[in-house]
């Protein structure tokens, strides 16, 4: 899949860079790279006019980016234009790549994405991970990473970083999975288990799914609530193009918002949490189906066939989602709610009752609900792209690593 | 009331300033002013070491701030220290002042706060505003503003801006009160009714209350949820020291989070919203009391006397608040929840059941709940301080106005 890295306002640019001459130069390098990335190809003059620097200043910055292998010359622009023909620039399809990895309850996946946003290598292994110890799972993941990196290196790409999506809570600014109930992992430091060759990021799959939506979705707004599900239900909150992470990194636990405060007990200690009504296991139970791999496919197949019990279970799940989302929308006032992950595939049967709750419980216009085109692909792509974005946001960082 | 403008990391500094040489200079002016403000008084050398600039650079910036009337010299520091004695600097107690105003359901209030954070003038008018047209209310408010400004000017202060707190939803980046149900105002542009002599800000009272907590509270964290009530229930979400406003500016509508989805109908269109259980009118009704002015005082007086009906009503309100806050805490993962406004005065009777819900519904340690020391003073102080902060965050802005 090739996706352009479009974004009108690259919010991450320079956020972490110091306010010095050197910091300003690094921010300007990022502006140049983002400008070219957003357009696919651009002349130096066009870059200059777009980011409001002089042509001379831009040329110096471009030369640096070419030297580092981040930009390349496409040759002279087509004639017939006014003025001296300039050479068009493009983001390099070689050089740094983002390595994304996903630890799913039923699978492991790894991919490499180049600076242009194209997936250049990919490896997947199906098989249940629930209840397995972290070590053998991470050993398998490391093998897949090795395969993908080897494939990428054959195309003159080198890993600029590894980002891993996990179905659980990750402590902020750490590599520690504090709780992943559906893997049965607790306080697991993935940093100690993964290869230490590249910068490592570990984050919740809902967060990476939301970032994928932000970066790759067509017309995704900069403020939205992204809801996804594998076994549990997670959400990610995006405000002004940035993830809201929470003090400990645990924000977005939509699955444990009370929907019916006197409802069934939940493993979290609460009662009547959303997961008790809309989590995949609850829906399977309500639908009278047996759990197996690919729960979503199973539910969708039965609903597709028109089985009323399954449809009713999904309708009730949609109602519970609508109640929890009414609360979330009242608190956050997002521009839209995006259903991603497994929920995207079940949306035909969830949406009517979900939207009925949202609309019925709102005086003004209800918050619109969109279905993610990325669906279950989101977390893996978001992970790989987060590494790519880090390079685009601070190109000078690669000089320390390459 | 005098409060120091302490803050370890002035988050607002330069947020809106362009990334140019000129922008960098303006940010450095802000850093100098914030450093002195945080300490009360400071020598040039101490400022330089604190913000990481050379002594010479700081001297130039300080001279400018003195010329603009934002800093003043306190005279030579006490002898006995090592090195050449420097003159201590302090933020000026004359010059620009923030004018804060509050439109309450039962009162109007205005105050002037100087750059040191001291309230220097104040005016209040009691009287019900519910159901009155905006024009006469704003005319009265304008009279109070005139009195406060005249009093401030006698002390060599001049208004750097006017900020107005209202009990309703304000459209983002506008002066328009979209909906203030307890005043019965809709789509009211206060910009057209207020004097146009100074920069104007209009915002929800919960937002200004939260900012007051952030700026003036002792040890308030940078990520918290601030819950307040006048007649309705509002909340403000602070993330990394900044308000989360929502797409339309309507974030924080905690009062309309569904607590019991099949509960009583609410004016918002929903059912079983938090306001139906914990809004002041609902509590009065449950307690069997007649509405009048100063509802909080009435409830507190009866609860104080040990009236079981009133205590039970407040206990039930606490339970409903706890259910809604469990959802909010799961979504936002704040460091703490702060009860402000009217809720602060009722906290002895609300807190036990509120905390029982929060704790009982959480697997790990529950989010702590604090009671605001500012209470109902918060919104007015937050409004005035927001003007002061704008000056501290961009001192050069006053040169365009003074």
From TrEMBL, chains A, B:
<dbReference type="InterPro" id="IPR036390">
    <property type="entry name" value="WH_DNA-bd_sf"/>
</dbReference>
<dbReference type="InterPro" id="IPR036388">
    <property type="entry name" value="WH-like_DNA-bd_sf"/>
</dbReference>
<dbReference type="Pfam" id="PF12802">
    <property type="entry name" value="MarR_2"/>
</dbReference>
<dbReference type="GO" id="GO:0016301">
    <property type="term" value="F:kinase activity"/>
</dbReference>
<dbReference type="InterPro" id="IPR000600">
    <property type="entry name" value="ROK"/>
</dbReference>
<keyword id="KW-0808">Transferase</keyword>
<keyword id="KW-0418">Kinase</keyword>
<dbReference type="InterPro" id="IPR000835">
    <property type="entry name" value="HTH_MarR-typ"/>
</dbReference>
<feature type="region of interest" description="Disordered">
    <location>
        <begin position="1"/>
        <end position="21"/>
    </location>
</feature>
<dbReference type="Pfam" id="PF00480">
    <property type="entry name" value="ROK"/>
</dbReference>
<dbReference type="GO" id="GO:0003700">
    <property type="term" value="F:DNA-binding transcription factor activity"/>
</dbReference>
<dbReference type="InterPro" id="IPR043129">
    <property type="entry name" value="ATPase_NBD"/>
</dbReference>
<comment type="similarity">
    <text>Belongs to the ROK (NagC/XylR) family.</text>
</comment>
<feature type="domain" description="HTH marR-type">
    <location>
        <begin position="30"/>
        <end position="81"/>
    </location>
</feature>
<protein>
    <submittedName>
        <fullName>Putative NBD/HSP70 family sugar kinase</fullName>
    </submittedName>
</protein>
């Amino acid at each position: 899949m090739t996706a352009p890295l479009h974004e009108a306002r690259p919010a991450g640019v320079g956020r972490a860079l110091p306010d010095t001459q050197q910091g300003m130069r690094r921010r300007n390098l990022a502006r140049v790279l983002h400008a070219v990335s957003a357009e696919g190809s651009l002349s130096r003059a066009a870059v200059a006019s777009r980011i409001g620097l002089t042509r001379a200043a831009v040329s110096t910055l471009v030369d640096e980016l070419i030297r580092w292998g981040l930009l390349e010359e496409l040759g002279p622009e087509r004639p017939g234009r006014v003025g001296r023909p300039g050479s068009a620039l493009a983001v390099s399809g070689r050089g740094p790549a983002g390595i994304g990895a996903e630890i799913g309850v039923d699978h492991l996946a790894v991919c490499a994405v180049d600076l242009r946003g194209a997936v250049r290598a990919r490896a997947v292994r199906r098989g249940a991970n629930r209840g397995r110890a972290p070590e053998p799972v991470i050993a398998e993941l490391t093998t897949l990473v090795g395969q993908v990196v080897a494939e990428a290196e054959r195309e003159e790409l080198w890993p600029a970083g590894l980002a891993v999506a996990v179905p659980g809570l990750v402590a902020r600014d750490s590599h520690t999975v504090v709780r992943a109930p559906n893997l049965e992992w607790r306080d697991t430091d993935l940093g100690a288990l993964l290869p230490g060759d590249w910068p490592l990021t570990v984050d919740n799959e809902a967060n990476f799914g939301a970032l994928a939506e932000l970066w790759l979705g067509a017309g995704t707004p900069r403020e939205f609530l992204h809801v996804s599900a594998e076994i549990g239900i997670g959400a990610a909150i995006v405000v002004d193009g940035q993830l809201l992470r929470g003090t400990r990194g645990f924000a977005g636990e939509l699955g444990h918002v009370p929907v019916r405060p006197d409802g069934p007990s939940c493993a979290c200690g609460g009662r009547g949490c959303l997961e008790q009504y809309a989590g995949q296991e609850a829906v399977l139970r309500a639908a009278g189906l047996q759990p197996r791999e690919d729960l979503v496919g199973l539910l969708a197949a039965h609903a597709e066939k028109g089985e009323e019990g399954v449809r009713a279970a999904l309708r009730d799940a949609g109602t519970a989602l609508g109640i929890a989302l009414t609360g979330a929308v009242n608190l956050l006032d997002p521009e839209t709610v995006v259903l991603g992950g497994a929920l995207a595939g079940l949306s035909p049967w969830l949406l009517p009752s979900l939207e009925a709750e949202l609309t019925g419980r709102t005086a003004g216009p209800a918050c619109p609900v969109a279905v993610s085109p990325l669906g279950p692909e989101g977390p893996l792509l978001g992970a790989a792209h987060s590494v790519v974005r880090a390079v685009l946001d601070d190109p000078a960082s690669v000089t320390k690593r390459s």
